[in-house]
Specification:
Elements (H helix, E strand, L loop, with lengths): L2 H11 L1 H4 L3 E6 L5 E6 L14 H6 L4 H10 L3 E12 L7 E6 L2 H11 L4 E12 L4 E13 L9
């Protein structure tokens, strides 16, 4: 079983996702994309019967960091630094979020961190219904830095 498939299975039984109705539908074997669904249930709606905002936010939480980290490899440190959410419409049905890591993003990060500098980058996510209605816009700020090279040990 591949590392991406194993992670998807683990995230799907991770209690914060499992008990919120969040399911990871796909993580690409090349770590370039992920697709997540938040199913609407009685236990994850708010007072007025729409998706609980915390669940909308949680469904998007780890993916940019994980995907970018896996695409860049072990020579980089990648962290979530900040996030913001804008609620656009009430979520009254299952909603989806999709993440796509493009070559241009990875090239931009590599160039900006080549000298050992940190790099901060806002990455957007839209949460939509199956029919395409926009429910929320979320932005995640990731921190990336190239790990310092270890000095060669004396032989």
């Amino acid at each position: 079983m591949s590392k991406a498939r194993r992670l998807r299975r683990l995230l799907n039984i991770w209690p914060p996702f499992l008990f919120s109705g969040i399911r990871v539908l796909e993580i690409g074997e090349d770590w370039r994309h992920a697709r997540v669904v938040l199913r609407r249930h009685w236990y994850n709606t708010n007072y007025v019967g729409t998706h609980f905002g915390g669940s909308l936010f949680a469904m998007t939480d780890p993916y940019w960091m994980i995907l970018v980290m896996e695409c860049l490899g072990r020579d980089y440190i990648v962290w979530d630094k900040a996030a913001e959410i804008e609620f656009v419409a009430p979520g009254k049905e299952d909603v989806f979020a999709e993440f796509h890591v493009e070559d241009t993003l990875l090239d931009e990060i590599r160039a900006a961190t080549a000298g050992g500098d940190k790099y901060l980058r806002w990455l957007p996510i839209e949460v939509r219904t199956a029919s395409g209605e926009l429910i929320a816009r979320i932005s995640k700020l990731i921190y990336v830095r190239r790990k310092p090279e270890k000095p060669a040990s004396p032989a």
